[in-house]
């Protein structure tokens, strides 16, 4: 009973995880959320496994101070490299975005040819490929890292000729492989949906992890009997490790609504 009113903890390397928060808010409108964006150390996508795991452990420790009832790793890069270690160290249920995204893609594909795009670290980890093959080992997976997409999205260049040109270059090999489904394996990429769809054409289904992750969160909370099924007014708190100004300015684009107050924490060590 007690757990019902506890918040859900969500962390990301920075701002992008708000796309996952948006999906959780839609799926579970009564749940309170504590969001932690490690804006002082973003990006994670260019870093090594050991650094990503270390940062992720610290992020979970921060969220646990708020008595969260579960933790969502909104960051694809953290989910790719750190999830097994986090689950080993902490008792709280931890949900990553990789398995839900893989499941959504496996359900969507007709030709069993799935593309995955993400940060360098996510693609290097092979996590999506492994998760897809756990569902169906006969599926062919083609991966491509798209490192310029993150700064492009933060700059707000979501359409237009520069964006299209970069997307065309990154996606040409996946197009050649005749994928019928593409996983947008990074928090930022859902904002590029229209450009990516334009480049790949209408026959490719774009899948992002956010919605399916929110569905999985519901399942985990139901299983633990901590789902907040009352019409409670949820409370949202946002914490970042660097100046909140940029997060505040850009954040609403990811969240689809104005952010409440954003608090700065001086690291979590
Ligand atoms: N949040 C990261 C992800 O989903 C993207 C930004 C970064 O590289 O830290 O992989």
How is the topology of this model organized?
Elements: E1 8-12, H1 18-27, E2 33-37, H2 49-64, E3 70-73, H3 76-89, E4 94-95, H4 98-108, E5 113-118, H5 120-125, H6 127-135, E6 140-145, H7 149-154, H8 160-176, E7 181-185, H9 193-200, E8 205-208, H10 209-223, E9 236-240, H11 244-255, E10 262-264
Parallel strand pairs: 1-2, 1-3, 2-9, 3-4, 5-6, 5-7, 7-8, 9-10
Bound molecules: D-glutamic acid.
Task: Give a structural overview.
This protein has two domains: 3-96 and 211-264, Rossmann fold, CATH 3.40.50; 98-209, 3-Layer(aba) Sandwich (Rossmann fold). It is built from eleven helices and ten strands. The protein has helices spanning 18-27, 49-64, 76-89, 98-108, 120-125, 127-135, 149-154, 160-176, 193-200, 209-223, 244-255; strands at residues 8-12, 33-37, 70-73, 94-95, 113-118, 140-145, 181-185, 205-208, 236-240, 262-264. Helix 8 (160-176) crosses helix 9 (193-200). The chain is globular, with a radius of gyration of 18 Å. The chain binds D-glutamic acid. D-glutamic acid (DGL) binds next to helix 3.
Bin the helical content: 40-55%
- The total tally of domains equals 2
Shape: globular
| Sheet with most strands | 6 strands, parallel
The ordered H/E elements are EHEHEHEHEHHEHHEHEHEHE
Strand order of the largest sheet: 4-3-1-2-9-10
SS class: alpha/beta
């Amino acid at each position: 009973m007690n757990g019902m009113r506890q918040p859900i903890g969500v962390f990301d390397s920075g701002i992008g995880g708000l796309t996952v928060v948006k999906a959780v808010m839609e799926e579970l409108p009564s749940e309170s959320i504590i969001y932690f964006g490690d804006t002082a150390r973003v990006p994670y996508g260019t870093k090594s496994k050991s650094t990503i795991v270390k940062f992720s452990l610290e992020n979970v420790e921060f969220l646990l101070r708020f008595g969260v009832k579960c933790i969502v790793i909104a960051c694809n890069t953290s989910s790719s490299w750190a999830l097994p270690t986090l689950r080993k160290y902490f008792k709280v249920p931890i949900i990553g975005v990789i398995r839900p995204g893989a499941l959504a893609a496996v359900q969507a594909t007709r030709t069993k040819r799935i593309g995955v795009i993400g940060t360098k670290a996510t693609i290097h980890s092979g996590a999506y490929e492994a998760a897809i093959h756990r569902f169906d080992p006969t599926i062919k997976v083609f991966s491509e890292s798209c490192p310029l997409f993150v700064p492009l999205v933060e700059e707000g260049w979501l359409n237009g000729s520069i964006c299209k040109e970069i997307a065309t270059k990154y996606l040409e090999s996946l197009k050649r492989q005749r994928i019928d489904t593409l996983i947008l394996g990074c928090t930022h990429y859902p904002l590029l949906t229209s450009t990516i769809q334009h480049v790949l054409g209408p026959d490719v289904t774009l899948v992002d992890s956010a919605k399916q992750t929110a569905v999985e969160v519901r399942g985990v909370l139901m299983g633990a009997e901590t789902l907040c099924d009352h019409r409670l007014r949820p409370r949202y708190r946002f914490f970042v490790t660097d100046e909140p100004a940029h997060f505040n300015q850009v954040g609403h684009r990811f969240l689809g609504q104005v952010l409440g107050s954003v608090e700065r924490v001086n690291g979590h060590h």
